[in-house]
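For the sake of transparency, this paper describes our internal protein records without simplification. The tokens are whole numbers drawn from a learned vocabulary of local backbone shapes. One such record is reproduced below, unchanged from the form in which we store it.

. . .
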Amino acid sequence: MDLSYPIGKFDFKQTVDPASIPSLIAEIEALPAQLRAASGGLNEEQLDTPYRPGGWTVRQTVHHVADSHMNSYIRLRLALTENEPTIKPYNQPAWGELADARTAPVDLSLDLLAAMHTRWALLLRSMAPADFARCFRHPEMGLLRLDTNLALYAWHGRHHTAHIANLRQRMGW
């Protein structure tokens, strides 16, 4: 099993079938409960265990998902209100090493994700089909369509939930 990409890598070249959008939105909406279940019941030592050698701890992973998904939610809002806005990337490894990512209770990010994903799903469901073709400009990746970004973040949630679930299985937790 690939500990870095337990569900495989995301394919940025894929075309998102418009018929799949409702199920992708449902994945966004369901992620907070899935991540809470994957990390639930772990003690402090378990939360501070890396999901793979050289990887983030469970705690850092949960906080990373909140950080990443907050950025994605803001990017969606920018793309809906501006014409191809250029977004600002962030240093994900450095964010994962900040004190809050290394020490804060995971419930803080799980609660944040629950509220934010509810709003995110509400906004996504309000969008017209043409809105999903809107784009933002990533300085390193170029133009990214909102339907592709939706698929990316549905994958991202599954990806990190699998990291934690696979660790639990390997460790017998």
Notes: The CA atoms of residues 15 and 158 lie 19 Å apart.
